[in-house]
Specification:
By secondary structure, this protein is α+β, with helices and mostly antiparallel strands. It contains nine helices and five strands. Helix content is about 45%, strand content about 20%. It has a five-stranded mixed beta barrel. Keywords: Membrane, Signal, Transmembrane, Transmembrane helix.
């Protein structure tokens, strides 16, 4: 393994020779990284040790920060184009995907199984982040990098295996980690260099994960359908109003039926009454007793005046 000093010298030489290489390419018309001349040479990563205890070793720190700074100074769009270029090159190497362009290359498994093929090359991965932390960068890095963000991302084809991403930028909403009350965010995309196979501890055992150095995390949170929400409120309000109106109409109809029933019953009762019969029964004809008539007649005869004494 190269010493830290040798890596620094190699990085310095690459920095000095890069402009000369570009000039030579302009003259000859040949570009080994055409059409992406700003890609780092994969050979820079040859001495980076995979599955090493301690993560990024001291001898790798110079290259580590050099790559992060290079990513900050280059266009993210160019990086994505380079990543797509690398993906298509890889597809052309595999017969199945060369003959069937409609098939999607499972990138994570390919990186995991073929680290030597992907180390030092740009890739683009999309998935969900379940862990996001930030910490100060090494104070002795000469590029002025202050803060590093570490994200543990899971892609659709990684199953339960994470990708560890180190970057220098995140969206404002993620500056302090995952949003409060959230343990996972989806729709996260990252484009960066495959640096090494990272060794980490999990549940009393050691596991490995690809370590990607990137410029930033891109997060596209799902948008809330405000139109749909407003439509739901309108539908709910309309349904409530119709329900109240329906209940009111039913109550009004029941009251009308009761009123009609009472009026009909009253009319029926009045039609059954015989007012003439009711009058005769309430005013009976009283006839005097027969004996009372005879006594009155006798009384009348007895009451005649007596004879005069002159006779």
């Amino acid at each position: 393994m190269l010493s830290s000093r040798r890596i620094r010298m190699l990085v310095g030489l690459v920095s000095l020779l890069a402009p000369l290489t570009l000039l030579a390419d302009e003259k000859t018309g040949e570009d080994p990284f055409k059409p992406f001349p700003e890609q780092l040479q994969p050979s820079l990563f040859n001495e980076v040790e995979d599955k090493a205890l301690g993560g990024v070793l001291d001898d790798e720190q110079t290259l580590y920060y050099y790559v992060l700074n290079h990513l900050r100074e280059t266009s993210l769009q160019d990086q994505k184009q380079a990543a797509e270029f690398n993906l298509q090159n890889r597809r052309s190497e595999l017969k199945t995907f060369r003959e069937h362009p409609e098939l999607k290359l499972p990138l994570f498994p390919d990186i995991f199984k073929n680290m030597n093929r992907w180390k030092g090359r740009l890739v683009t991965l999309t998935g969900r982040v379940r862990k996001l932390v930030h910490y100060p960068a090494s104070e002795d890095n000469k590029f002025g990098i202050k803060t590093l963000y570490e994200a543990w991302m899971f892609t659709d084809d990684s199953q339960q295996n994470p990708v560890v991403v180190i970057c220098t930028e995140v969206p404002p909403a993620l500056k302090n980690g995952l949003p409060e009350g959230t343990d996972v965010i989806d729709h996260v995309t990252v484009t960066g260099y495959v640096f090494k196979m990272y060794l980490y501890s999990a549940q009393d055992t050691s596991r490995i994960a690809p370590l990607i150095l990137a410029q930033r995390l891109e997060w596209t949170p799902p948008k809330t359908d405000e139109t749909g929400g407003q439509l739901f409120v309108v539908i709910l309000g309309t349904t409530f109003i119709l329900l109240i109106a329906g209940v009111g109409i039913m109550m009004w109809r029941n009251n009308q039926r009761d009123k009609e029933f009472r009026e009909k019953r009253l009319q029926t009762s009045q039609g059954e009454i015989n007012f003439d019969q009711l009058s005769s029964e309430t005013s009976p004809q009283i006839k005097p007793p027969a004996n009372e008539t005879g006594s009155a007649r006798d009384s009348k005869s007895d009451s005649s005046p007596p004879d005069s004494p002159r006779s």
